[in-house]
Amino acid sequence: MNWLSLFGVSLVVLLLFFYEWPKMNQNQVKEKRVFIFLIAGVWLVAVMLIFFPDVPGPIDLITFLFRPVENFL
Fold first, then answer.
1. What are the domain boundaries of the chain?
2. Which residues of the chain have pLDDT under 70?
3. Sign of the C-alpha dihedral, residues 33, 25, 39, 6?
4. At what angle do helices 29-51 and 2-20 cross, to 10 degrees?
């Protein structure tokens, strides 16, 4: 089931890429680099959540960092 989800996420990311890429001008080099970086980051996070769904979220890190301060307040 995980591999099917991975295939689905990859397909959606590829469709998004091929839909948006032709709309960018050839002289938009920096924008294209950022677009590739963001698409790759989104794909990586999606794959990580598919295979490791129990990864703690950002609120867990904030809670861990500020728990000692909670005692003083």
1. 2-72
2. none
3. negative
4. 170
